[in-house]
Amino acid sequence: MNKTNNETDLDAPDDQLNRAIEELRGVLQEEEQRVGGPARDASAANPGVILNIPVDVQIVLGSAEMQVSDLMALQKGSTVALNRRIGEPVDVVVNGRRIARGEITVLENDPSRFGIRLTEIVTATKAG
Prior knowledge:
Layout: H1 2-35, H2 37-45, H3 48-51, E1 57-60, H4 68-72, E2 90-94, E3 97-106, E4 114-121
Antiparallel strand pairs: 1-2, 2-3, 3-4
């Protein structure tokens, strides 16, 4: 029975990602129906309009709090200790909102670059 739970845990991130995508599609469809009129007709004629909107994606390794005097003392070669340890998940933030967590990895096709392997999708909650 534990093996089944572990296998389920491994599939969970993919399932969560798929559910998040479907939820986003549902929200977009609800918005189209709510708006109605010409805006609805325009989006129906070109559904890629929303999908082509650029978003700001940030990977947050951690943060630090320091006094202004310590900030002013920083110089080339200074080290700032972050609130996370090596190996802890990093946050994936889109337009200021955390949507996922993941682990830093080296890209297979370009070992000189980093990437993020998603390990957790933050579930969206509807206000209401």
